[in-house]
Amino acid sequence: MYNKLIVYSSNALQSTRLFWILGILTITPLVFLAYFYNPGSDDFDYSYESQTEAFWPLQLRRYNQWSGRYFSNGLLSLEPLTYNNYGLLKVVPILLLVLFVWALYYFISSVSVSLSTKTKWAFVGGFAFVYIAQLPDICEGFYWMPGSLQNQLPTSLVLFFFGSLLRFYQQRKSINIIGMLLILGALMGCNEITVVLFLLLVMGLFLYQRVALKKKGFQLGWHLLATIIFALIEVLAPGNAVRATNIAVKHQLFLSLFKSCQLTIGYIVKWTPMVLLCCCFFIELIKKAIETQKYKEWFIHPFAAFGIVFFTVYCGIFPGMWSLNGPPPDRAINTIYFFYIFAAIYAIAALLQYLMVNQPNHFEQVRGSRLLFGLLLVTLFLANEPIVTAYKDLFSGKAYRYNLEVKDRFQRIAACKDTVCVVPPLVNKPKTIYNEVDFSLTTAKNNWKNLEVSRYFRKQIVISKPNDSTFVE
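Now predict its structure.
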């Protein structure tokens, strides 16, 4: 039969070292680049407000006049820049990376306690590689505080939540319930995209448990109720309506529906090959998980599962298209991509389960596949811009020189006695830790980024003026 599915032999599955190496190679440059990271735009604005207003009145004002992101707004009021601590600010991205890795290990350990430590770390390395290698914007993901605390942090909290949920079903300890509620309240107060996707996920699990499996599921029901309450607190905040009035956009329903569909297909086509390739290394482990009774009943028809993949990405993109008449910012796409990975892994597992039931004899083990697929993974590793760019920023010295330039800029602004403080434009702009949209100063004194820097340093006007007419920042 020529319609056999090619999978790895059990020996090939012992190649955990590949994913350890890929995970380490992915995370290492990001850790070192944190030393050269410097704040930009909204970092200064949040810190200025936190320096000039008391903590709780400020949170109340933001909730009523800016946004309902109650948890991330609170964290941004405590970021090191508020205390003029630039050194500690560089530690935050490292803490976020460590938290993400810890959350992955915690979740994977909760899914299967029988896996060896080596295999668990292989899953961690593989997921970290897949996630970071295709992350739309690493700067907004792990470095820039308004992006990282609002979008990256909740992804780790999602992992902790479901890890705790699985452990509750295994251990029935009340401490897990308390932990889940605290985590839930935090992750639902970070950004709207997480609210939408997480709420749909919990609602889908609850309905499937009650309707398809015909189980009462009181525990998941209580968490769904808590999720809805926290979602309403975030979404119905008066500040969201106030903020919306500042965006002069005429909503276009049909255009938003069509463009969201177009973007969804584009992102799925772009993201799927690497996720599928990595899953091939864990086919046997996925098969074993499918065969266990506690997971077997949770798989649906593969067509419906792949529909969930499309639905997940679409529901993440549409709110941005509707509210902005354009694609969501990269930091929001980061969050959508995180949820996509889990939806895609589930769909692949559902397809495998379907084939195991309906075509059990159509599996052929090919020992040489490991080498081929390993080479493909390494090729994708080298071909993906985020990781390669991170190494270039680090080893070319661009990040080092950028750090020196920014230090000089801040010293010039602090020492400036004139009404208009003019600083030279940056020459080195490492993409991994510098987002031009969020960070670059302009020649316009009323540009929002110039105003935020001016307020933080207590200067009237701060602008960046090129030394010659052909150079712009």
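Residues 250-361 form one domain.
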